[in-house]
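okkk here we go again. third time trying to get the flavin mononucleotide bound version out, last two times i messed up the smiles copy paste (missing a bracket lol). double checked this time i swear
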Amino acid sequence: MKKFSKILIITIIIFAILAIIGFLYIKFMELPVIEVRHINLKNVQDGSYIGEYKTFMVKVVVKVDVINNEITSIEIIEHQCGLGKKAEKITKEIEKLQSLDVDIISGATISSKVILKAVEIALSEGKNRMSLIIKGVRSMGTLIVYATKYGCTEKCAVILSEKLTGEVDLYNLKTEKVLNLSQYDKVIIGGSIYMGRIQKEISDFCIKNLNLLKEKKIGLFICCMRGGDIAKAQLESSFPRELLYKAVAQEVFGGEFMFKKMSSIERFIVRIVAKLDKSFTVLDTSKDMSNVSDKSINRFAQRMNNVCLNE
Ligand SMILES: Cc1cc2nc3c(=O)[nH]c(=O)nc-3n(C[C@H](O)[C@H](O)[C@H](O)COP(=O)(O)O)c2cc1C
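finally!!
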């Protein structure tokens, strides 16, 4: 009997420990921010598009049919969802309202957002296809390829695009799937730095397309919070040597700390690093901060605009 009580107590303790670990894991991993962008259906070419989005424990693959600028059907091809099955009815709302601006299904927030994001990605492909058709055999333009986690690099890419002459397309490596590099003569690549490294999507993109990129006029930039020589070293270690060597513009644009969007672990890392490294000037983690430099963006744009394509 004594032995039985011992086993029972040990079992209860093990369960309690597992429950605490589970609770802390969910609390500290915090669910990622999923921002769903509005897509204007007038810019989407007729067709069937596949969109896939995966995040913390949820994966969704959808097929979206568009005819005459209307979503005619959304089919969920795959939904790995845990408890989020009931989110699937959100597709009916999207079809009814012809918009991604619909109410989230309560009790299935993450699955609802992942479905919305997958539909957005599918429609983006249709938008890309439409823009290729509209552009036809247009003169070659500039492409800004970027990757972002909290939106700083995207913000900088948009500001930069407004300062560049000629046609400029933006391409988010994390969300878009269809890219035809051969229609651009200038390619700008930008990413942000986490723990000293640029996002994997950027490194993979550079390696995969290195030969084609070597034929273009190249611009390279990073967003980060460190300054001076360290920032410069981060820029230089972010891109292949061949691209750095031939780039007509290279800049560190500065960065942002969006504390409210960060997970607890990230906030903790930033606080520790800021204590050890004085080039991070973090005073108050309850307020977002930015040191994005307009001057660097202007200088970069000027260099890209002045480059002679026959050089
Ligand atoms: C967890 C974490 C680690 C970071 N590590 C670095 C780093 O090693 N060097 C640096 O200069 N900036 C670092 N930063 C700052 C980011 O590069 C900066 O916030 C950037 O603006 C993020 O851009 P994004 O929103 O486009 O991803 C870090 C930020 C976070 C949250």
